[in-house]
TrEMBL record:
<dbReference type="GO" id="GO:0004497">
    <property type="term" value="F:monooxygenase activity"/>
</dbReference>
<dbReference type="GO" id="GO:0071949">
    <property type="term" value="F:FAD binding"/>
</dbReference>
<feature type="domain" description="FAD-binding">
    <location>
        <begin position="21"/>
        <end position="343"/>
    </location>
</feature>
<keyword id="KW-0560">Oxidoreductase</keyword>
<comment type="similarity">
    <text>Belongs to the 3-hydroxybenzoate 6-hydroxylase family.</text>
</comment>
<dbReference type="InterPro" id="IPR044560">
    <property type="entry name" value="MOase"/>
</dbReference>
<protein>
    <recommendedName>
        <fullName>FAD-binding domain-containing protein</fullName>
    </recommendedName>
</protein>
<keyword id="KW-0503">Monooxygenase</keyword>
<dbReference type="InterPro" id="IPR002938">
    <property type="entry name" value="FAD-bd"/>
</dbReference>
<dbReference type="InterPro" id="IPR036188">
    <property type="entry name" value="FAD/NAD-bd_sf"/>
</dbReference>
<dbReference type="Pfam" id="PF01494">
    <property type="entry name" value="FAD_binding_3"/>
</dbReference>
Amino acid sequence: MENKDDHPHGNGNGIHHDENIVIVGGGIGGLACAVALHKVGLKAVVLEQANTLRSGGISITLWANAFRVLDVLGVGEKFRTMYTNIQEWKIMNASAKPLGKLVLAECEGGPHDVRAVERQVLLETFAGELPEGTIRFNSRVTGIKQSERQTGLTEVELQDGTVYSAKVIIGFDGQKSVVGSWMGLENAQAVGQVAIRGMAMIPNGHKLEPNVNYFLGKGTSSAFLPVNTTKAYWFIIKNQSETGFGDTPPEQVKEEALQFSKTFQSPDLHFLINNTSVENLWKGSIRHRLNKTTDHLVKGNVTVAGDACHPTAPYMGQGGGMALEDAIILTQKLYHALREAPDTAGSQGAEVAGEADEERIHQALVEFQHERYSRTYSITLKSHQIGQANNSGWAVMDFYRDWFLVKKSLNKETFMLPAQFYVEELPGNSIVSSVKNTLY
Ligand SMILES: Cc1cc2nc3c(=O)[nH]c(=O)nc-3n(C[C@H](O)[C@H](O)[C@H](O)COP(=O)(O)OP(=O)(O)OC[C@H]3O[C@@H](n4cnc5c(N)ncnc54)[C@H](O)[C@@H]3O)c2cc1C
């Protein structure tokens, strides 16, 4: 696909860039997508509102499906050597009474990758794979419209007045997606739970076992796990309908976490929160949206992916994994639409070629959404249900959760199924996936 004009034109606030592919949002999904596109020879720019790669100094638990994506992008081994592989999943009540546990290697298809990975390292690794200038920081997208200059082009406008025109726009811009709003998607809804998460630094080394320790309380839940030998990730979740606390001073968030952690009889949890600096804390509302159909997920040559497409409660730890899968599958579709396309321009002229590109791109985006729908829908739904059951706060529900749901979930045959989704290698590479995607 030829770029008509890569050089910005216009003056002052009216600067105009023509690009082939624009990705809105330089988070986990947007950067992974840019790397994948780059690897198959499709040029993209990433518009990121922040002035730098920024992730709040915390971790994200990545499972085998996400590691498969990292392998396809050529960076999986780096993360395997840096981060502890989790061996056991232990669930306790708030008094630390064991409710059940599972040895992950014994689960169907094991051994498995389950690691808490530093978000910042993930972002920096992806950024390091990209040609200089791919990520445009301080680029907050405020508006989108079909181009009046040429059919098949869409324009995104930045807060400072700069305009990018592109043949493909991908909204990887998170749960409050501007791209999604333009496409007519409803906002992700707060589910009435608030999370505080953080990463503790213990320079002399901690003594944690390589396990996830999960606590279920009354209307609350919490967990901690080692990231590596000197860092550990923790979170607490409680029922709270309040939103809009983005301006809460981090010292106050830490105090809140410390006070709240007393709900759980876990000296390790208190220790970890105490050893978390205020820069490594995050507090936010949990949000989700179930897309009833794929109808509003493609508009012309614009689509959404990652949290912008399927905002998911974090109870299965799969939101980031699904964003990474999206990045690869979307790239595969665009590659087939653009790199393998017949040479229409040669025989019928540029205008016909433009129309053919436009149609192929649209079809590729539609196919992408159809392919992703059942998996992302089922995980989004199940994550929400787990959150409601874990945090209901009703005594009867808590009894059912502790004596039935926990045992049902800690099942060697089924526990790892959501992570057993393996994307295919990128086109042009030699390794071919031998595992079929069966469940989602
Ligand atoms: C408490 C909690 C725990 C979680 N734990 C896990 C876990 O263990 N494992 C897991 O896989 N997932 C987890 N998730 C989910 C995971 O964080 C998300 O699914 C993942 O970050 C989605 O990536 P993304 O790139 O789609 O969006 P984001 O990471 O949200 O990135 C969006 C990017 O777009 C940028 N942006 C937004 N608007 C604009 C705009 N208008 N213009 C330009 N740029 C814009 C933002 O600055 C940001 O950089 C958790 C989520 C929460 C809330």
